[in-house]
Amino acid sequence: MRRFLRPGHDPVRERLKRDLFQFNKTVEHGFPHQPSALGYSPFLRLMAIGTRSGAIKLYGAPGVEFMGLHEENNTVMQIHFIPDQCQLVTLLDDNSLHLWSLKQHGGASELREEHRFTLKGPPGSPPSATQVTAVLPHSSREVLYLGTESGNIFVVELPSFQVLEDRTITPEAVLHRIPEDNCNRRSCELVEALREHPKNPDQILIGYSRALIVLWDLQNNKAIHHFLGSQQLENLYWQRDGSKFISCHYDGSYAQWPVSSDNRQSEPLENTVPYGPFPCKAISKIYWQTTKNGLPYIIFQGGMPRASYGDRHSISVIRGSQQTAFDFTSRVIDFFIIFSSDPAAEFDDPSALVVLAEEELVVIDLKSAGWPAVHPPYLASLHCSAITCSHHVSNIPLKLWERIISAGSKQNIHYSSMPWPIDGGTNIAPDPPQRDLLLTGHEDGTVRFWDASGVCLHLLYKLSTVRVFLTDADPNDNMNTVGEDEWPPLRKVGTFDPYSDDPRLGIQKIYLCKYSGYLAVAGTAGQVLVMELNDEDAEHVVDHAEADLLQDQEGYRWKGHEKLKTRDGPVRFEAGFQPFVLVQCQPPAVVTSLALHSEWKLVAFGTSHGFGLFDHQQKRLVFVKCTLHPSDQLALEGPLSRVKSLKKSLRQSFRRIRRSRVSSRKRRGGGGNASEVQEANAKFDQDALQEMELAPVQRKIEARSAEDSFTGFVRTLYFADTFLRDSSRHCPSLWAGTNGGTVYAFCLRVPPAERRMDEPVRAEQAKEIQLMHRAPVVGILVLDGRSTPLPEPLEVAHDLSKSPDMQGSHQLLVVSEEQFKVFTLPKVSSKLKLKLTALEGCRVRKVTVANFGSCKTDDYSENDLAVLTNLGDIQIISLPFLKLQIRYPCIRKEDVSGIASCVFTKYGQGFYLISPSEFERFSLSTKWLVEPRCIVDMPEVTSNNHVHNKSGTENAARKS
Amino acid sequence: EFRRFSLERSKPGKFEEFYGLLQHVHKIPNVDVLVGYTDIHGDLLPINNDDNYHKAVSTANPLLRIFIQRKEDADYSAFGTDTMTRKKNVLSNVLRPDNHKKKPHIVISMPQDFRPVSSIIDVDILPETHRRVRLYKYGTDKPLGFYIRDGSSVRVTPHGLEKVPGIFISRLVPGGLAQSTGLLAVNDEVLEVNGIEVSGKSLDQVTDMMIANSRNLIITVRPANQRNNVVRNSRTSGSSSQSTESSLPSSTPNILGNLLQGEEESDEEDIIIEDSGEPQQIPKAAPTSESIESLSQIELLHESTQNGFLPSSEMNLSHSAGSISMEYEAPEPGRKSLEEDGTIITL
């Protein structure tokens, strides 16, 4: 239509746009979703994690990160670094092998896939013949040994993945060379483990599933030794000097075997069931680590008594009389030990145990007494309790930063002081331009403060709001206390704890003032806490107020949850943010919007019923405003009735599915011969198809009306010092926007500082704007005389912003889900608008003002709106003319939680959840870009290292 | 009675001034009259607002014949296409030229006396298989009342016939606006919403677009039933057909002239309540010199050349709202406020 024709492009502006905007997904923070494999290179000191979606991530020193993705998106089963190389091999669950290498390109290393390969057996052989179960990269770096389900061991050349058929070790060849009567073909089925001799690269240890273990001479193609255990084999491990190896078994036992020079069948030196005598679960992996002062470390996974502790995910560390079973809250995927990698060293001297559990990475310091955990600098489990909201604060003043770190360090005293042991590679990224904080609110009532300045998202401090309330859980219940003679000696480790004591504690909104250190936090049961940063522990009473948002509404019945019970009397708070005011909304509906003005000492909060303003200086409720439409029964009753109907509909749809299944089975059963069955099937399919066509997905087209549900839901609150009543005097004001497209403006009278405690804060409604399109109001903003958004409170006082222009006329920007509108102030007349939904069919989900600097000139920057739509697109819209600058697809539109979790920063970056445990970081700016940039150099390799290589064993095959 | 007087063509002024002038020259200050003129085709067309007044003045060649009738004994049906050349067939209508003889004469009031609720527009520029329907939610309390669904339709493409996904009307709510107009039907394929093509958009996107435009919804459909398509008349010369409330037989000729054609997008007016006073509609801000920078000036120019007609009804509305409590600069024609329609949105 002619109205929507595009005017011509302005070349100057187009060029400027290229200097300002650029979209990049830069780094993934947090813990990989569904990890499935772990690998470690003692040579590179890099760790690799594979996931079920086919991603592979490498981590070294903080800031050293690489990521790769297998095209197939199949589960990564095993990861093996090639000894003394910047290469690794991955095995996927489709039995394909992939060779990856780290290559330097443009001054930084990159991870690239070089080759792929799938083992093929002779024609007609079953798939199990070539199903890879064990992988051994040989220390010669030239070949890979691949153990298979059939018992064959194939040899493939690297990097070409050429199968060297003449070197295949077949079960027949093995059996032929074992002078044993009770060994048969079945003994050599399924290769469980392949381990290279630590001193002699021409010998490998082959462990078959049925407990036959063979030491094989690669040069002469003969068995040097064979060992026959009594229990199904799980894994093998060489001792450092090659004189003994250790095997672990399905029944929870492990055995030590001597390797002597005479060619006889050996008996195990020692065969123990560590958690016997009752039946135990399998020990799936074991390490035997020697130390200088004699006592070795025996570290193994599993082996718990089947009946009483069979459900535990444990790794046991035994050293002499010391024994601890580290107890993980999620399944253990794999683990490795960091020990002396110097091939000349006589002992292993292990320093750390690194455990990859399904939901977190735990590192245990084995050198310090008590084996404390090490605080990881990355791979934080963001989801140790589900994330319910996030808030980003850019450019934190150094003072506040240091105080938060100091508060956090007091919480971390139980961590080891050991430096991070996985320290390969060099971070060459420039220092982060500023100190940024990402605050995440969690379901368990905690707020976590993350250092989001750089590539490593690092936990600085954790705040819990639980202490203010009386909950069923005893806060003194310490899960880590272990009785003296407890057996097995379990010790809980890790932070992943997804179970919330009380869902009402969940954090919904966070607002931090970086200048004053005031923090406001609001939650699921209508609780609003105002906190102050205190460097010391303190015990004090939290002032408590109630805000009745319904006021005079009659005939109301809240069917939702009750409000939280508060603790009477003084409460002890640890150093950090300590609450001093608690406001509880009545009814205790979830807080949907929150604003804090640290200069005026006011906090505003809104729920589905209305909003209120609280003076946290005088600790007095200033006013409440009910926004409910009298006919909005759903909001009146609370969330329960809605949940019920959802449940009901779910149940109905399940029933329908079941019914259709039953009927299809009946039909199939009735059919006598195949064709009849087929016919019935076809008919059924046709019926189903018809049914689908009869009831297609429909969407009702109806104009929104004032009577719609949840119109009173307060979506946004905003403080502004602007011209609300007349153009000569500006005054403090509070703005609120609702789901029904209403904007309320209140004129505030805040007494001057010297009489702040004596006179009350007064508020008076000055304006009410009803947007006729009635879409939810998601953002309110006042632009000053220069069309610049008003600064944050205290920003000007700290000389960090120019004072706003109070000469020219101010403008009000109202962002609804469908439109952007600019109105004049104080007389409200509409000036400009952008109808997003009418034009594009998308709706605004998130909107923030972001400052974009030019990458070409330092002195140019401008403010624009960063907008995320329900289609997952990000649009940048100019201020104050509301022109679409650029659009980038960012999140899949089906990824509702990703879109809901998105948070923009003030300088054109953003975060959104790509899984419950991972934030994707993106940048819209050419200037502010935080992405990993690092180099992995090949450490010096001595020529004789080849023979005495030690690292090969580390990468030896393990059971998948 | 004939009068002849001169008028400056470049500055015709407002209709009300002109109306006052007519009353003055005819010395009938308190008599309500209907004003009409003959256009270049010889049709008698009404003059009752700024738009058609300006149009009339611009067509003067150089004389403009104006007809004035006393309102109470006016012959409304005298207006319309071909009325001057074929005076006997006063009921002739572009849409259905063959049924005019059977229909009894129904007196309907003047266009400004009732609000349109729906219309078929742009008949002259659309293919005959398509129908562009405008629903004016603003004028009625009826719900829009229809549902849409996903479906597939067959298109002719360079690769031959191809099945492509489409959006269809799936249900009409009885008594709803959509049903009562008779212009939309179940299984009509939706092609455009307010000028935006829906192909490639999801059902949810189209739903959102329709709801966002619900106050003034223009849907282009390919009717499932192609038998009732408009038969195009070579003499339509840009005017469109229109149907009104369903209480009128759909074949009733109805003479809205070009009022509709140039009518501005009847945009929703937000409401403001100041200091708990009475709700008022929010006026549009006049562009001040500071806010019009070079960029927006280009667009103004652009816009005024695009929209041949200027919104008058809306201005009047703003006037009445403004006169209550607000003083503001009345937007002059040609300096239309920045925010009128979509043109400025896209860059």
Automatic annotation (TrEMBL), chain A:
Keywords: Cell cycle, Cell division, Cytoplasm, Exocytosis, Phosphoprotein, Repeat, WD repeat
Domain named Lethal giant larvae homologue: residues: 272-372
Keyword NAD: no
Localization per Swiss-Prot or TrEMBL: Cytoplasm
WD repeats: 69-103, 433-451
GO biological processes: cell division; cortical actin cytoskeleton organization; establishment of spindle orientation; exocytosis; Golgi to plasma membrane transport; regulation of establishment or maintenance of cell polarity; regulation of Notch signaling pathway
Pfam families named among the record's database cross-references: LLGL (PF08366), WD40 (PF00400)
Gene Ontology terms for molecular function: GTPase activator activity; myosin II binding
Region (Disordered): 658-679
Biased composition (Basic residues): 658-669
GO cellular component term, pick one: plasma membrane
UniProt keyword Flavoprotein, yes or no: no
Physiological role: Part of a complex with GPSM2/LGN, PRKCI/aPKC and PARD6B/Par-6, which may ensure the correct organization and orientation of bipolar spindles for normal cell division. This complex plays roles in the initial phase of the establishment of epithelial cell polarity.
Similarity-based family: Belongs to the WD repeat L(2)GL family.
Quaternary state and interactors: Interacts with GPSM2/LGN, PRKCI/aPKC and PARD6B/Par-6. The complex is enhanced during mitosis. Interacts with DCAF1.
Name under which the protein is recorded: LLGL scribble cell polarity complex component 2
Biological classification of the source: Eukaryota, Metazoa, Chordata, Craniata, Vertebrata
From TrEMBL, chain B:
SUPFAM superfamilies: CAD & PB1 domains (SSF54277), PDZ domain-like (SSF50156)
Primary residence: other
Name of this chain's protein: PAR6B protein
Record GO biological process: cell division; centrosome cycle; establishment or maintenance of cell polarity; regulation of cellular localization
Top-rank taxon: Eukaryota
This protein's encoding gene: Pard6b
Biased composition (Low complexity): 234-252
Species this protein is from: Acrocephalus arundinaceus
Disordered, as annotated region: 228-257, 326-347
Family assignment from sequence similarity: Belongs to the PAR6 family.
Domain called PB1: residue spans: 1-71
Cell cycle found in the keyword field: yes
One protein family per Pfam: PDZ
The keyword Cell cycle belongs to this UniProt entry's keyword annotation: yes
PDZ domain location: 132-225
Keyword vocabulary terms for this entry: Cell cycle, Cell division, Cell junction, Cell membrane, Cytoplasm, Membrane, Tight junction
GO cellular component: apical plasma membrane; bicellular tight junction; cell cortex; nucleus
Subcellular location: Cell junction, Tight junction; Cell membrane; Cytoplasm
CDD domains: PB1_Par6, PDZ_Par6-like
